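Researcher: I'd like a candidate sequence for this fold, 312 residues long. If you have to choose between options at a position, lean toward the conservative one.
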């Protein structure tokens, strides 16, 4: 294993590279937002994640791509707080790095209220300070897997409600995101869908239903009661598959994991300053989230939320 991290006091925006030495797999994490910006597994698969060529990496804005973290809200139900919360807009501290035998190489990142208040940059607004909590992101690299584990620790005396989401951007090589033979998502049979563009609601008939990008896609898929763990597959080129799984525990109890599928398509891409007009051909977001029926995190308790990306 090797971890290349520079002194965070003098060069706080330097990305951290986590290398799994025995396989050569590696990930890069930007301390701003603890955003994983690259995952290159063993073999010739190449880059798995998409980052826009116009993404800001100087801390002026959340990084457009990779795996930004949303917490304590998804979207902006509470207008006094930033869209998708404040984790992606704060500078995190690089924590310890270690190996799990030959299996995995890991690095931790931390964010506390004090970090934000002491001027490490970013947003932790008045509303958010009522959340007395600290966050750890564990990033684990294996030969063909990338796992991210977000741990939210309620360090205060009050319970609080929250949502959390891994806003994962996948790279679709060759600009094929709108090609149905090249890019699709499968495995969401029984999930109820809320289409955020048309407001339609329906149930996905079976696990064989393939979800394509045929227009602007912005849908929330909520699991049936008997399926708390998320398990789906993404095709990112003919024959090139990625398995995505996710699970969550709040106060030690399993919490259902939903998933958001997003592609801005042509018109919305043109409205985004940090996303090139044509880049909707190059990506799809598949975003596991603790979005509904999330119990309040009790004092001295934690929420543990994991996403595992496995390339086949
Ligand atoms: C998705 C939402 O998760 O994120 C979309 O469902 C939103 O509605 C998209 O447009 C991007 O959000 P942002 O804040 O990164 O531009």
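Model: Candidate sequence:
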């Amino acid at each position: 294993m090797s971890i290349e991290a520079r002194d965070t006091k003098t060069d706080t925006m330097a990305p951290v590279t986590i290398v799994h030495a025995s396989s050569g797999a590696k990930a890069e994490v930007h301390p701003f937002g603890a955003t994983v910006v690259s995952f290159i597994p063993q073999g010739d698969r190449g880059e798995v994640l998409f980052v826009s060529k116009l993404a800001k990496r100087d801390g002026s804005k959340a990084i457009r791509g990779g795996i930004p973290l949303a917490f304590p809200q998804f979207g902006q139900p509470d207008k006094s707080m930033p869209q998708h919360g404040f984790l992606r807009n704060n500078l995190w501290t690089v924590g310890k790095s270690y190996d799990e035998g030959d299996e995995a190489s890991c690095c931790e990142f931390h964010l506390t209220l004090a970090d934000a208040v002491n001027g490490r940059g970013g947003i932790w607004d008045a509303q958010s300070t009522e959340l007395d909590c600290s966050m750890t992101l564990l990033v684990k690299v294996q030969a063909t897997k990338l796992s991210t584990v977000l741990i939210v620790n309620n360090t205060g005396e009050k319970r609080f409600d929250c949502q959390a989401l891994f806003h994962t951007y996948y790279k679709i090589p060759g600009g094929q995101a709108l090609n149905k033979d090249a890019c699709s998502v499968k495995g969401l049979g029984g999930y109820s869908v809320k289409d955020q563009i048309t407001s339609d609601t329906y149930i996905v008939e079976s696990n064989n239903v393939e979800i394509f990008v045929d227009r602007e896609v912005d849908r929330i898929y909520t699991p049936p009661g008997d399926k708390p763990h998320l398990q789906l597959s993404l095709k990112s080129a003919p024959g090139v598959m990625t398995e995505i799984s996710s699970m969550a525990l709040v106060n030690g109890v399993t919490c259902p994991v939903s998933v958001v599928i997003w592609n801005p398509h042509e018109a919305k891409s043109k409205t985004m300053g940090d996303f090139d007009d044509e880049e909707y051909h190059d990506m799809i977001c598949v975003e596991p989230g603790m979005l509904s029926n999330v119990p309040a995190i009790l004092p001295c308790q934690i929420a543990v939320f994991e996403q595992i990306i496995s390339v086949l």
